[in-house]
Fold these 2 entries.
Entry 1:
Amino acid sequence: MLAAACDPDSPDADPDPERRLGLRFPDGFRWGAATSAYQIEGAAKEDGRGASIWDTFSHTPGRTRNGDTGDVAADHYHRWASDLDLMKDLGLQTYRFSISWPRVQADGTGKANQRGLDFYRRLVDGLLERGIEPMATLFHWDLPQALQDAGGWENRDVAYRFGDYAAEVFEALGATVPVWLTINEPKTVVQNGYLGGHHAPGLRDASAAYLVAHHLQLAHGLAVRALRASSTARIGPAFNLHPCYPVDDTPEAAAATHLYDGYENRLYLDSVLRGAYPQDVLDDLGPESRMVRGIRDGDLAVISSPVDLVAVQYYTPYYVAPGGRTEMRWPTSEAFWQQIFPDGLFDMLTRITRDYGPIPLTITENGLPCPDELGADGTVDDPGRVEFLRDHFAAAHRAIGAGVPLESYHVWSLMDNFEWAEGYEQRWGLVYVDYPTQRRIPKRSARWYQGVIRDNTV
Ligand code: FCB
């Protein structure tokens, strides 16, 4: 069945998705798009890059759809200059990308690989030359395989290796990248990598999962401290946050929703912004859990090292029933887990400001996969994505009006790419990638977005 969110023939589809809402964003608000290294770069074996857990995972039969891998991906490693020209043409003001740890340190330790760093140097300089602000994520899931062989994120030492890697990257690029993000979606590593097992490293081990969460948070804090030692750039975490709502007004649903929210949101937000893990989650894990036993004196002080901003990634809400089951309430996209609910973005942004104070926020991911096709006339028509983005931009605008210090918005994604276990089947880009030729074709949504950026108005 075609997902309702992308189906222009659905009775719910807006016949005029490009209709302007007349919502002007504050001067200085910045518009951009996001990608990550393994999803677009390809060049998996070039210039001294080591293997990552995603190379191993995607090359393991049965792990990804159609056996797809990131070996070539969108070939951005070779096409970066024309990709930057395209970004400039679209008017992007900020670009969020990630740095591949195994390009910088093939086995995750030691002296940095200059050829790997040079790629990011060229990319950053190319962005600055085109007037686009670089925003770099240090880790978007591509852990060096050698570190996985040493225990991966279950091994506390890997957090310290990450701190060292961060220091190498900051030394090379810290002065030219104004905003750094530490770890992309630690929760997804925990839930998909260690609970569901459908992401690398492909484990299903609940006792390991939350120890991994703690070590990811520790790694975040160590990277923040490394930056402070060498640069005045800004830094923060990148969290995928999910507003959680009770399915009914029973006290049982309220209690289940509160705990669900603890695992989805407060575990990450509270530790970084309040210096404590939420007690209800610690109680639920239990004093004998590997996570609780793995927290050492001083860890929370490292984790809560002051940050300059929080990066919010929003895709879907959860509706929680007594006992912790979830229910679907809204039309879904091609991603089975995504319900289309723009108000959830408003709720999450305003909740962060209410609960954690006026820390600057940026949206570093929000987007929709659609069954995009290259038409005979050479265009790609994606009205569902236009409608989705328009409605989410409007929700962000409303949040700013309610006092949320939101600085910028990065659509996921700049271009179609390797969507992890879904391989190349799901297309999330503003720009269509014709993989056999690697030709880039801006979709209707990209052209529409160009107008939004030009006018700073939705
Ligand atoms: C996020 C990931 C990103 C992409 C989008 C669809 O969870 O950070 O790499 O896969 O989902």
Note: The mean pLDDT is 97.
Entry 2:
Amino acid sequence: MADCLFCRIVAGDIPAALIHQDDDLVAFNDIQPQAPLHVLIVPRRHIATVNDLTAPDEVLVGRMLRTASAIAQAHGHAGRGYRTVFNCNADAGQTVFHLHLHLLAGRGLGWPPG
Ligand code: 5GP
Ligand code: ZN
């Protein structure tokens, strides 16, 4: 989608600090990190929210989680722990309507979230 920020990052039109790329996914550092490691894992294909996932997307979502785990492990956070979050719509504070998985690590993360 031409007017989607993360589609533009995926296309390379807007720069981002890339952490990982493959045929289906791109991962890059969040521009406003909320933890020492804050990476966004996004599908190349535009999907607006978790509500828009369909059965054929189940493998893609599994890959997003496994990629988050691999990045956490590569940065030395697998043992102490990390958080993965999908925000969906207004009450969760979703601001970019292109599906993204937040990976947060490197500090103690409070629960419940604000
Ligand atoms: P949401 O609130 O939708 O779950 O998360 C969107 C995230 O995208 C936020 O954490 C925000 O900091 C991040 N973000 C917004 N604009 C940009 C950008 O231009 N580049 C990068 N790398 N991250 C962005
Ligand atoms: Zn998009």
Note: Residues 58-74 form the longest helix (17 residues).
